[in-house]
Amino acid sequence: MSATDANAEANGGRPERPARERIVEALLALAAEREAEGAHVWASIGIADIAERAGVSLAEFLSAFPSKGAVLGGFARMIDMKVLASHAVRDDDMGGEPARERLFDIVMMRLDHMAPYRAGLRVIYAGVRREPLTIAALNKAAQNSWRFMLTAAGIDTEGPMGALRVQGAALLFARTVETWLYDDDPGQAKTLARLDRELDRGGRALALANDAWRLTSPLRRLACAVLDRGGKARKPGPAAPAGDAGDAAPEAREAAG
């Protein structure tokens, strides 16, 4: 009997959740259970441990995720889907709010959906922060997430300024999560204060970037015009017909004689 069949039998024949979801939740559950072991828990959890807990074979694990770190990207995507589904229900209530309030709402909605996994995330965060390559991969996943989160909030994500907004939102959220992970107050006072500070900081940085982008607009147009003219000047003319070269050859020989 395969691991998947065993899992289905254990569920009394009920439809199983997707393997990706079970793998994500298995990793977070294992991390939460080993919280007392400290910062080395992340390194101690192996792919085989996760597969066994999720009730999947290694082949099924590989089909879902190429690595343990990729499971964290899967968690981010799972939260993305939950936030977007929740936001679709509440969108009418936030449509007329300022961008700051819409972003605040998205961040808090995301934290609410992450709350059941906080213990596991706290352990994983302590271990992952020691791995620069994993952090870089997670930042890429965060950018993908926040491109959709900002779009849901009605904030433009296209072009250079849009890319800056996406990266800024990812950093804002990461810094807020640093506080949220250890904020046990039911009112989340520390988290709310941190989010307010990060929104203020992000707003100032974005305003400066907008000013710089607007002020350099004439220079960018000039540079584009110069490059365009330069490209046209370097464009080669049509090649001489082969017959012209042949006709000139006898004259050259006669002059040489």
Automatic annotation (TrEMBL):
Identify the InterPro entries for this entry.
Homeodomain-like_sf (IPR009057)
In residue numbers, the region (Disordered) covers 230-257
Spell out the SUPFAM superfamilies in the cross-references.
Homeodomain-like
**Superkingdom as given in the UniProt entry:** Bacteria
Biased composition of type Low complexity is found at 236-249
Q: What is this protein called?
A: TetR family transcriptional regulator
Q: Which organism is it from?
A: Camelimonas lactis
